[in-house]
Write a structure and sequence with these properties.
This protein is mainly α. 77% of the residues lie in helices and 0% in strands.
């Protein structure tokens, strides 16, 4: 049930689970986020392999980035947009938090999403398109993105004690964080070996620094901030892989 809750929360896959999720199910589902990332990654790899039979690489990479947003319901992208809007406010942390709750997206949010999607595309398109490295990257970068969300939930104070923010924070346990880390580590190492460990370390560093920054600006992390961390972690994984390929280490 907890895995289904995570799958329902992070994807648009139609599930037989129709009833509203309980706060306990929401909070405990986070440890399964990397597994949901694996489901997403396998979908992207299968789609990418099929699309390569029909279209040129550049177009395939655009479709992959768009497919990821559609398959995940653009939930994390929305979090990035709302977080960016809140960050540019000169008001206090509570006002910034209220901005992230606004369903409307401002110009800074749109710019942040556009820049991130462009960064992902360029990083993905810079990889060798005819090698298994590209397909493997499609599998593990969504895993690392969702692992970074678990890390942010576990490591940083929640912005509010009530609502989904508080549900996730109350459900955070050390063994959940350990399980999520082992899943992400196992998937990444099995597909990318030592370069994968370097990439995961980079994602860890970026997620940690970003978490500290968001905490200083908002007083704690909320749902939008978790999404922003996940999106930037995915971009970090792709950029680091592109860098390692460029300098001949992957």
């Amino acid at each position: 049930m907890k895995f289904l809750a995570a799958l329902r929360y992070l994807t648009t896959i139609p599930l037989p689970l129709r009833r509203p999720l309980s706060p306990g199910e929401i909070g405990a589902s986070a440890l399964f986020f990397p597994l949901v990332g694996l489901v997403i990654g396998l979908f992207l790899a299968a789609s990418g392999w099929l699309l390569k039979l029909l279209f040129p690489s550049a177009l395939v990479n655009v479709l992959i980035i768009g497919g990821l947003a559609a398959f995940s319901g653009a939930r994390q992208l929305g979090g990035l947009a709302h977080t960016a809007d809140g960050l540019v406010s000169h008001a206090g942390p509570e006002t910034r938090l209220r901005i992230t709750d606004d369903k409307r997206v401002g110009s800074f949010g749109i710019i942040a999403v556009a820049a991130l999607l462009l960064l992902k595309y360029v990083a993905l398109d810079s990889l060798p398109q005819s090698q298994s490295l590209w397909l493997y990257a499609l599998i593990y970068f969504p895993v690392l993105g969702r692992w970074a969300m678990v890390y942010a939930i576990f490591s940083f104070r929640g912005a509010r004690p009530s609502g989904p923010d508080g549900d996730f924070k109350r459900g955070a346990r050390w063994y959940g964080m350990l399980a999520a880390t082992l899943i992400a580590l196992g998937v990444t190492f099995s597909l990318a070996r030592l370069p994968g460990l370097v990439i995961m370390a980079g994602v860890f560093a970026v997620a940690g620094l970003l978490g500290l920054y968001l905490k200083s600006r908002f007083g704690g992390l909320n749902i939008a901030a978790y999404g922003a961390v996940g999106e930037l972690a995915e971009a970090t994984a792709l950029v680091m892989l592109s860098l390692l390929v460029h300098i001949g280490l992957a």
